[in-house]
Amino acid sequence: MNLDFTPEEDAFREDVRAFIKDNYPAELRGAQDEGEGLTKEQMLLWHKVLAKKGWVAPSWPVEHGGTGWTPTQKYIWSEETARADCQPVLPFGISMLAPVLYTFGTEEQKQRFLPGIYNGEVWWCQGYSEPGAGSDLASLQTRAERITADDGKEYYIVNGSKTWTTLAQHADWGFFLVRTDPDAKPQSGISFLLIDMKTPGITVRPIITLEGGHEVNDVFLDNVKVPVENRIFHENQGWTCAKALLAHERSGIAGVARSKRNMEKLRTIAATERSDTGGSLIGDAFFRRKVAELEIDLTALEFTELRTLAGESSGKGPGPESSILKIKGTEIQQRIQELALEAVGHYGAPFLRDLKGSNFSVGPDYAEGLAGQMFNGRKTSIFGGSNEIQRNIIAKMVLGL
Amino acid sequence: MDFSFTEEQSMLRDTVAAYLADHYDFDKRRAAVAKEPGWRPAVWKAFAEELGILGAPFSEELGGLGGGPIDNMVVMEEFGKALVVEPYLGTVVIGGGFLKHSGHAGAADLIGGIIEGKNIFAFASAEPQSRYNLAAVATTAKKDGAGWVLNGHKAVVVGAAFATHLIVTARTSGGERDAQGISVFLVEKGARGVTTRDYPTVDGNRASEVYFENVSVGADALIGPADHGLPLVEKVVDEAIAATCAEACGVLRKLHEGTVEYTKQRKQFGQPISSFQVLQHRMVDMFINVEQAVSMTYMANIKVTDDAERAKAASAAKVQIGKACRFVGQNAIQLHGGMGMTDEMAIGHYFKRATMIESAFGSVDHHLARYEFLSLGHAA
């Protein structure tokens, strides 16, 4: 047991660092520094650079464009990209849909859809949750009826509504869970469909979240006609795909590298801010203890994740233990956001989102938006299976209760 | 021992609650705070003329209702339930508090103007580098003949956009964080040399950066003793803390009740999610937090008139309330699931207000440190 990196791994880290330094888009860096919302094109800039280099999908099998990196190399990659504050690659295509496609899709489906995902040409969104089906996802009601149309081809006619669909306002295509057998047990009658978002009958309506942002949407489907060949895996067995996808969603959610980066930012803020007595806030006995405790929590999470990674490299897939990573990862992200807001004191209060264009600024630049991030961050313990559901999974699948 | 409210206090609560039910539902409030000027002067006028509540804590000889902190508590708790943004705290509790306690020669007239709804006050105390230390004052007031000249920058002054008058702490002697050398001034907002930059806050209020550039005021602008104003500031801020704790109680009650209600209606896995024991226990813990917050709020409002007990009581209450705001607020969102994240539902707005109350007039850490010192003395 040791934590040493090999000389090859150290060299890899140097390569990654140099590549980011030389290739990270200046326009994107600028927009991030300004703290402005990114345009659709900006959100894809880094993706396209990585696709060209061949590094956009490290986890995919090599034959589909994966890098073939070892778990340690992937770990170095995520650490270095977070350290350099790179915009994360959007997960919908690369890490949510693609594993389903290359695991369950036909050869034809893989060839049709994987290149667009890889190159960032097609923007995907996830149609899972419904107003009445959140934690209890299997109770979803969106109905797909199979018909033979006048052209002699088979289609699904989809009716229903999806919600919390992240960035659907930009999406070209969506992957949807729909009910194809209303009489079967909840998990047994579901199918996994790929739907072109331009199909007639689809309406996307913004949901404004409590910090004022537009990230998520309602998606309404009204007699949407979907060719049968857009179904992944067998009819009524879409839940198998969904479960695989959710496990992927969970394993990435620990966000250790990004939390480490945000801890650094927190320390910088606390070193700049004054305490009640006029020294730097990081010297304040109360505040520094909270930072220290949080760093220890984050170390515990990091080593738990490393153990999981080591398990994966020896052939074990991400098991129900990945729920630990989701629970602790999101709690730590939220805690960092709380402490950052605490650190800036009075200047956490201004709400300047609507005054942006006028170059209006109040207090230190780093204070801007921290309250909004903290409010928005409450979602992380709700989405991807709420932390209560994750505890149920551990109780049932790990402890056998 | 008696924890009951007087008949007058119960009537005050009913009057305020009935008015807010008719004029201050969530949609009306949301529409008002989303646009300029960010508050409703007509509501303020009704507080003064129709309800007569702006005189609640003032003596009858000043034209008030003859109440005190308990009356402020009653009003503020109801305001918390409706997320009222009109400046009762800044005007009646803080502005009125300074005037009442200072023996200022113009106090009776100015309080008369508060009760009539004409005088509106904002408390310009915090500065960019002050954090929560009331003695950390870099704004200066220099003697100029009989009067004073003020220079400085006050940060995140809540309600300054609505105010006719500012209560300003300024340094008349000593170093930037010295307890000695602080004086309190009454400055008309329209005075030459006063400028503001107004902006909304994340909880639907309005605040401003307020700048003083060679602002000349007369000798009568001084409130309380020159150089020795800090004890007066602390006393009024403790009263403001007691009132803010009461507002928090209203906010916390709504967060808890809204959550219990929602979990009874929301069905998953074929049953209301309120039937899951893990959520029941969470809501019980929220309830315990709310009840403890209410208890500490009563304690603080009873003891706030006793100068020997006041500071400890206010800090103890603020610690308890700050913790409750975080626990109850965050769990209210969690138990609402995705719905709790939407701007459309009221629950998120209560959560945002609760989060801001956590640090208003000092964070949990600040008040824990103050309590520690008052109760245990200096650390070894």
Describe the structure.
The complex is a heterodimer of chains A (401) and B (380). Chain A is of the alpha+beta class. Chain A contains twelve helices and eight strands. Chain A has helices spanning 7-23, 26-34, 40-53, 71-83, 91-104, 107-119, 238-251, 256-272, 285-313, 322-343, 370-377, 387-398, and strands at 124-127, 143-148, 154-162, 173-179, 190-196, 202-208, 214-227, 231-232. Helices cover 51% and strands 16% of the residues of chain B. Chain B has eleven helices and ten strands. In chain B, strands 1-4-5-8 form a four-stranded mixed β-sheet, covered by helices on one side. In chain B, strands 2-3-7-6 form a four-stranded antiparallel β-sheet, with no helix packed on it. In chain B, strands 9-10 form a two-stranded antiparallel sheet. In chain B, α5 (88-102) runs antiparallel to α7 (230-265), α8 runs antiparallel to α9 and α9 runs antiparallel to α11. The longest helix of chain B has 36 residues, at 230-265. The mean pLDDT of chain B is 97. The chains are: A alpha+beta (401), B alpha+beta (380).
